[in-house]
Specification:
Number of helices: 11
Low-confidence stretches: 1-13, 336-343
Number of strands: 19
Order of helices and strands: EHEHEHEEHEEEEHEEEEEHEHHHHEEEEH
Helix content: 25-40%
Strand content: 25-35%
Largest sheet: 7 strands, mixed
Shape: elongated
Structural class: alpha+beta
Amino acid sequence: MPGPEGSAVQINRMENRNYDVVIVGGGASGLAAAVELGMSSPDLSVLVIEKMNEPGRKIRATGSGRCNITNTKAAGYNRIMEFFTGIGLVTRTYENGLVYPYSESAADVAELLIARAESLGVQLCCGEEVTAVRKRVDEEDVPRFEIESNYKDVKGEHRVITEAAYVILSCGGKAGPTYGTTGDGYRLARELGHSVVTPVPVLTGIECEEWDDRAEPSALILAGTRTQAVASLYKDNKNPVFKEAGEVQFTRYGLSGICVFNMTGHMRYDRNKGESLRDFSIRINLFPEGRFSDYIESVQRGRFSDISVRDMLCTVLKEKLADYVTERFSSLLDEGTKETGPDGNGNKAVKDLSTNEIKTICDIVHGLEFRPVKLRGWKDAQATAGGVSLEEIDEVTAESKIAPGLYITGELADRDYPCGGFNLSNAWLTGLAAADDIASKG
């Protein structure tokens, strides 16, 4: 490994270790696998190698620090709950299916997993980074893995070689790099013969062109606004490829909120085919409960039909949204004249709206359109789409079809799910599946 200014780092000593199972990554799937192996196969020696200074760092941050462990609708829900009940975690389940630790503390979940692993004899080596995993055959023609890693202490940097019969790659994807998930596992998997579907950040915010301060009108005025709505994603302005109700958050850069996060998992495109993110459009239905035209017509028939379009919109939408919809309406009808005086379209009395003008307002309210230009990066993303190809992994056991004895779990594989505990469920479940399969082989 190169040192400062390209000089070679002096390796102070060589260490050699031997374990039955080596788990690369002390996150959710890695710790679940370690604890399960400790319980089901106490005769197996298990080592977890974690490059961060403590295991479970990303677990501690999940669910805004509350840790949405699983969901009653998640695949493997019963198996996951059996595991956590078995290690003594008390949970609470909400009507929407979300399951949390009873304390609603993500740190408690991480600490419990670590404590159970240690009490079961699992070895945890933190601050140690795996640089290579190689498969070979020993003198007795038995397949073995050789794991090369480095760690630093006051004496310098040390190179370690660990041999194992089984390896579980639980390195995570690339989302949340501050917690150690920086994509290391993709290189390790490739070197063992696997192919990797290009990783992209998902469950993240979307930057849109309407937030440019030169846009007319600029959606910057919406920053800090939240509203219940239905968000739809279109590709090439055809039928929606995604649709979900929920809270939409208008930020300083664009769109956020759980339904927007879930939308990002559907924003796939192929650059080789000339596709881009700009092939998509997002429409926000601000009034999904009914036809907004019915409301406008009721105002026209009522006592206060002389109120302005803007004031009418303020009776239904939050003020910033009403202002923005008013400006969009005015810009469409004024054809760039930018009328702002008493005769401008935003100040027009509701009673004087024409059929065409009512339609224009309703089109905006039911389909406020935004054009995405960028997904927020890995630092903001909650999950990774892409990863080790599922065609090369046994769906039941998480074992590699290319390198038997190797297991690929959690977000390292090409699986991603919506918000609501589903991604964390996948991490627990695949870690447990790997542990169960190893235990069955004795």
